[in-house]
Amino acid sequence: MKRLNPKKLFVQYRPGVTPTHPIISRRYTLTHSDVTGELFLMIGLQYAYDKINPMRDEVLTEWCRVDNKYVFCAYAYVGGPFSREEAKVRYGFFKKEMPLALEAMRYGDRSFFKAHPELDNVPIWIYFDSVYPYFNRLEYWGTFSDYK
Fold it and tell me: Does residue 1 register a pLDDT over 70?
């Protein structure tokens, strides 16, 4: 899978998180530059709303507990103000680039995964948010062991 160029990934820990803690309340905001291909991963207690651009092509993720088990929950905004055709393009973009995004999160927070190796095996669920029913869906995307 190795699509990630680690030299183009920039990680920032925001107040309240360290490279290894916490698990719950740990939120990731992944953005990118279309021009340079660089990826920017902010890890904090809140999403990095200050880094979200009007295109809304970021991926927001967090660790959740469901039935007393960890789950990795992701969110991608496919669209509301966009036409159905634009939503289709955005959905295709997210589907194509999501493996890279997950690999970037896994690599960028590798000290965290080293401290909590059991989290490599939790399910990853991605919610694609759209006003169009076909694109408004929750999908299972494997585990982080698939993206390291």
Answer: no
